[in-house]
Amino acid sequence: MSEQRVVVIGAGVGGLAAAIDLARAGRAVTVVERGDAPGGKMRRVAVAGLGVDAGPTVFTMRWVFDGLLGDAGTRLEDHLELHTPERLIAQTFELPDGTAMLSLARGQPSPAPAGQPPVVHAIALGCALEHAPKIVHADAVAGIKPAAVGITCRLCDREDCAQRAFPPMNRKLVLDAHMLRASPYSFNED
Fold first, then answer.
1. Residue 48 belongs to a domain with what CATH number?
2. What is the pLDDT of residues 51-104, one digit of tens each?
3. How many domains does the chain have?
4. Integer CA distances (angstroms), 39 to 23, 56, 60, 101, 156, in order
């Protein structure tokens, strides 16, 4: 039987994940990317001589990557080192309704119980991008096109997520004006 060959176009997170899964299934995979390096939105661009994140700077749904790489016989830690930033991170993003937003975030270490690793919390501020000129740290994202967000919300089951733009595909919205939570809605169980 001849080997099945697959070409994946785009070396962003989705393309790389598809390539890993296809290779694990025994396919011969070739990944092609028009950019200078893989990463898609998760790449750095030079702005005024400084490296700036072009897209997402917050890594969520770690379990998805752990499962994907675990099924392929490797671990995320074998390929990259994750750090919680101690510096301020500025990024722009566009909501599904077209609203452009600015987000400023940084990690804040907190004391941990003896013998435990330090706990780091993310502290973030967001506002409409039109207000960016009034914010000191927003100059790092001037001229960068906002990245679209919300698509992966359809895959995520986390209920208490303030960034949620859509409910998961397999759940229906439950709206309760008297419930206070990070997300303005929750989901039913079916």
1. 3.50.50.60
2. 666 666 566 677 888 888 899 899 988 887 776 556 677 888 777 778 888 888
3. 1
4. 18, 11, 16, 22, 21
